[in-house]
Specification:
With about 1000 residues, the chain is mainly alpha-helical. The protein has 43 helices and eleven strands. Strands 7-6-8-9-10-11 form a six-stranded mixed β-sheet, sandwiched between helices. Strand 4, helix 36 and strand 5 form a beta-alpha-beta unit. The longest helix has 28 residues. The protein is elongated, with a radius of gyration of 40 Å. It starts with 7 loop residues before the first helix and ends with a strand.
């Protein structure tokens, strides 16, 4: 009977009449069954109008009675059974009763087994399958069965539906039920056991229903889940691609609902990008994570619970970006204040053993733990309360089933950290004892590298503090073990973090004389170049060097001092070379000769040259602005990145390709050492033309190493050498800060420094040179480290003499500097076109309007007795200068031009007649020689004259005249003109001294190279 249009009184009257007839009907038979079916219908309609659960319950009872009367399986009985299941399902959806879900699952499974009867009736097998998927989804959500098996069965059923010919509208519902079940229950069962089959199922679903928000989001979440388990980049890329497509879906949904889906997709992209960076710490992933973490903040409402999380994440990422790349602009400031939540209410949620902690509730506990770490100004009472809360959660792990499966490594770390803070506040030894005990328990419990790293970070702080109190050998061993955990190859972290930890390990081991010292230093060298090349450009790499100068500068010095102490001076020289001039060594490697490789494998040589060219172009490029202002980003542009991010990605791609090529080259016969650090035998050739003096300035021990043509001398220093050298550097820098260079005060300070330098370095070196019978007026090269890189070693003195004549070091020997032994060796390599001994042509580059006394110097150069090409003022454009440099052996610059990008195979000598061309500033790292003089050497110039500080313009004319007169008129057969430049400079400076100029004016000039 059609009941539509009846009112509640009408329905109740009809029910009364039908129920009055039932007692008079036969107890068995179809007639009684049909009355029960009618009563089911009227009771169910009553429920639809009134919402009364009692009416729904009675309608189900009548259906059960009718079903019992129709025991024979016919099409009618099957249809009736299906009605019973639908009504039970209705009650299940409304009231979520566990008994109903069990009945629905059992009855639907029965109906699926009656497939032949279903095909006769009007009920489709696919419809029953769809309902079974939904019922299993509810049972999984209620956690009343075996969730893993339920999910597995649902996936199988959905694959069956996908292979059928049912419409997409019908197919969408069970697939969404499976997706929701997976997402809601993934926190209470090991979803990874069926993850692969689920992903394949939803991939098929996405092909059938490509514009379903729910299905796409579910697939992306599953892929992200698998990425968290096995860290497959392919999974993360697929997930991000799916989420980005969601942003462009055509949709008939209301705008607010569509916006909600898009916001969920944006959050997913941000989460996966951040997770990928957190796992792999690649620079391109840092850029992606930073960019994508900004986008959700555009769409998030102010009351969004996740907004503070994204704000804090973005603040951390932009801070990391500033540290790694030196990008300060556009730095996002996250929430300034972290407030501790109400811990008592959170604690109450886990005291009941029968409670079930949902994902959302666990997020609240997680946020509470995070706030304990992020809140720096916790009061003593708050620290105590936080410790009690952490202890409670830790004790509840095995008592509360919904807590037991979760990863609690962060809980151990937070509790250990809080206990250490309590020790720092109170000085109570029991706090640090418990802190160490908690972390040790965590390290025994968790074996995954990332989990152990988190615990080891906290343990290192606590155990180090404990060692400072007790100083036990076993505690020292534990500290070293923690360093080993933190820096192992299995551990993924930022290269800079790993470098700092390795540096800390080396320092601790060196101070304590621990046998792991060699391992620490070798690991440091292993990761040194990776740390540097994390940044894409020379400018940003320089920033990294400066920000990490302590580690980069002290590393080779400390290791070399240890090797010298062990009687290994040759190894020490190799070590010092590996750690010096890193930037220029990297750049020089981009221009390494491939002649030998080309003879063996021309194709591989061409590939290597091409990738080197690409990398050099990226590294030498000017970094584009890396600001990522949140206000300038639009949702529709969320799949794009800024130019700096593109540069980072390009550089990393090139680096990866280059490393693969190097591996292929080293696999060739006789190429096993290709681009490996040079051996001592190779480095020793730097002394073929004269002694090279290496100064190792180190806090553990300082030494002077003198390379002679056929031998190596070690000059030990006094115990106060290290301190006195630092005092000299400070004295000179302080004088330059507070006094003009031409002032008497600065002159006195410089004179004092030169005198002390002679006593500290000059005298023992001169004594050794004389002992080795090195004639005076011989060439000598200085290869300094640390503070000695900006001290004027070439002008040490005055040197005591019997005849009363004032002499300095440059009066006895012809001094030059070299940033590294490799640079000096490279400066002497013969040119590809063959060595020429003809008088060189000179390129003069000048901007006279910027230099007060430039005109007389220009005239002096133009009158020289050789070919001179002049590029003056507006004619001295970068392109014209670079082009002319290719055709001139000598160059005289009166301005500082950026020509580092050029390759100049015929260049021999450059005279940099301008201010500060060889100066190291406080922003530089001393062992890097980051000045124009070193840059000119990198470009191909074999010898360079520069200045240590501001020069007097009026000296340029006289110095240039004497210099070129000396070099062009000297009679030294078989000696290239560029190798005569050191002597010519020394002679020109002598003439300048004869004019009684102030000390600082002649000390200023230095010679680099061959």
């Amino acid at each position: 009977m059609d009941t539509e249009g009846y009112s509640l009184p009408d329905i109740e009257g009809t029910i009364f009449v039908l129920e009055s007839i039932i007692p008079f009907l036969p107890r068995f038979g179809r007639r009684r069954a049909y009355y029960f079916i009618s009563l089911w219908k009227w009771r169910f309609d009553h429920y639809n109008l009134s919402g009364s659960k009692e009416q729904l319950d009675k309608s189900i009872l009548y259906l059960v009675e009718a079903q019992l009367l129709l025991v024979k399986p016919t099409a009618d009985s099957i249809r009736l059974f299906h009605r019973l299941v639908k009504v039970l399902f209705c009650r299940l959806l409304k009231f979520k009763q566990p008994d109903d879900v069990e009945s629905c699952v059992k009855y639907l499974r029965y109906l699926r087994n009656q497939r032949c009867q279903l095909e006769v009736g009007v009920i489709s097998h696919e419809a029953v399958t769809s309902y079974l998927v939904k019922a299993l989804a509810i049972r999984a959500e209620l956690n009343t069965g075996d969730i893993k098996e339920d999910i597995r069965e649902m996936a199988t059923l959905c694959r069956e539906l996908l292979n059928s010919d049912i419409s997409g509208i019908i197919l969408n519902s069970p697939l969404e039920s499976l997706g929701v079940a997976v997402l809601k229950t993934s926190d209470i069962w090991p979803v990874e056991e069926v993850l692969d089959s689920l992903i394949e199922c939803f991939r098929e679903a996405n092909m059938r229903l490509p514009y379903s928000y729910y299905l796409s989001l579910t697939l992306a979440r599953l892929l992200a889940n698998r990425f968290e388990k096995n860290y497959s980049i392919i999974d993360s890329e697929e997930a991000i691609t799916i989420l980005k497509k969601i942003l462009t879906f055509p949709s008939d949904l209301p705008q607010n609902l569509r916006s909600q889906f898009q916001y969920t997709a944006l959050r997913g992209i941000a989460d996966i990008s951040f997770l990928r960076f957190s796992e792999f710490h690649m620079p391109e992933y840092l850029e992606e994570a930073t960019f994508h973490s900004r986008v959700p903040l555009i769409s998030a409402s102010c009351d969004d619970r996740r907004r503070p999380k994204f704000s804090q994440r973005l603040a951390d990422l932009t801070k990391q970006r500033a540290v790694e790349f030196g990008i300060e602009g556009g730095c996002y400031r996250g929430p300034e204040v972290h407030k501790l939540p109400c811990l008592s209410s959170l604690a109450a949620s886990i005291t009941d053993p029968d409670c079930s902690i949902s994902n959302e509730q666990w997020d609240q506990h997680w946020e509470a733990l995070a706030s304990m770490i992020l809140t720096n100004d916790l009061a003593d009472s708050e620290i105590e309360e936080s410790i009690k809360y952490c202890r409670l959660v830790l004790a509840s792990i095995h008592c509360v089933p919904s807590l037991e499966h979760r990863n609690h490594v962060y809980l151990y770390a937070v509790l250990g950290s809080l206990l250490f803070r309590a020790f720092r506040r109170t000085g109570k030894l029991e706090c640090i004892d418990e802190s160490i005990a908690v972390i040790r328990d965590g390290l025994k419990t968790y074996e995954a590298p990332d989990e152990r790293v988190l615990l080891a970070f906290v343990a290192l702080t606590s155990v180090s503090a404990y060692n400072s109190l007790h100083q036990r050998e076993e505690v020292v061993d534990e500290i070293i073990q923690l360093f080993a955990i933190l820096t192992s190859d299995d551990t993924r972290m930022m290269p800079s973090e790993r470098f700092h930890l390795l540096y800390g390990w080396a320092i601790v081991a060196h101070n304590l004389g621990h046998p792991s010292m060699t391992d620490a230093y070798e690991n440091l060298f292993k990761h040194m170049q990776d740390t540097l090349s994390y940044a894409p450009t020379l400018e940003s790499q320089h920033h990294r060097l400066v920000s990490m100068r302590e580690g980069f500068q002290d590393l080779p010095l400390g290791y070399a001092s240890y090797q010298i102490d062990k009687g290994q001076p040759r190894k020490a020289i190799e070590t010092l070379e590996r750690g010096r001039a890193l930037l220029w060594s990297e750049m020089r490697d981009f221009r390494t000769s491939t002649d030998q490789l080309r003879a063996v494998d021309p194709t591989l040589a061409a590939e290597f040259e091409a990738i080197n060219k690409d990398l050099e172009q990226v590294t030498m490029s000017m970094a584009p602005c890396g600001n990522m202002e949140t206000e300038s980003i639009k949702v529709e542009d969320s799949w794009t990145t800024d130019p700096f991010s593109d540069l980072v990605a390009k550089q990393q791609q090139f680096l990866g390709d280059r490393n693969k090529l190097i591996s292929r080259i080293r696999a060739l016969p006789n190429f096993g050492n290709f681009l490996e650090p040079p051996s001592f035998d190779v480095l020793h050739s730097a002394a073929l033309c004269g002694p090279v003096i290496i100064i190792n300035h180190c806090m553990w021990r300082s030494d002077l190493l003198v390379l002679f043509r056929d031998s190596l001398s070690l000059i030990t220093t006094t115990c106060d050498f290290y301190r006195r050298a630092i005092e000299l550097g400070d004295r000179l820098v302080d004088a330059r800060k507070h006094h003009r260079l031409e002032s008497k005060e600065y002159g006195r300070a410089l004179r004092s420094v030169l005198q002390s330098l002679y006593e500290l370095v000059g005298k023992p070196v001169i004594d050794e040179l004389r002992r080795m019978k090195i004639p005076e007026q011989s060439r000598v090269w200085w290869c300094p480290t640390s503070v000695f890189c900006f001290l004027p070693l070439h002008a040490m003195g005055p040197i005591p003499s019997d005849d009363g004549v004032t002499r300095y070091f440059s009066d006895l020997y012809i001094p030059s500097y070299t940033p590294s032994l490799s640079a000096l060796i490279a400066s002497r390599k013969p040119q590809a076109e063959g060595q020429t001994f003809q008088k060189p042509s000179i390129l003069l580059v000048a901007q006279p309007e910027s230099l007060k006394h430039a005109i007389p110097e220009i005239w002096t150069i133009q009158r020289l007795t050789t070919t001179v090409t002049s590029l003056i003022s507006k004619n001295a454009t970068p392109s014209s200068v670079v082009e002319c440099l290719r055709h001139h052996q000598f160059s005289h610059f009166l301005t500082l031009l950026e020509i580092v990008r050029s390759q100049l195979p015929t260049a021999e000598f450059a005279f940099l007649s301008a201010c500060h061309t060889a100066e190291l500033t406080e922003e530089s790292i001393s062992d890097e020689a980051l000045h124009l003089t070193a840059a000119m050497q990198y470009c191909g110039f074999r010898s360079v004259v520069g200045t240590m500080w501001a020069m007097a313009d009026e000296d340029g004319q006289y110095l240039a005249e004497d210099f070129y007169k000396s070099i062009l008129s000297s009679d030294e057969p078989g000696v290239p003109y560029y190798e005569r430049s050191a002597r010519a400079l020394r002679d020109a400076v002598k003439n300048l001294r004869c004019k009684k100029v102030p000390l600082e004016r002649w000390v200023n000039y230095v010679h680099y190279g061959a």
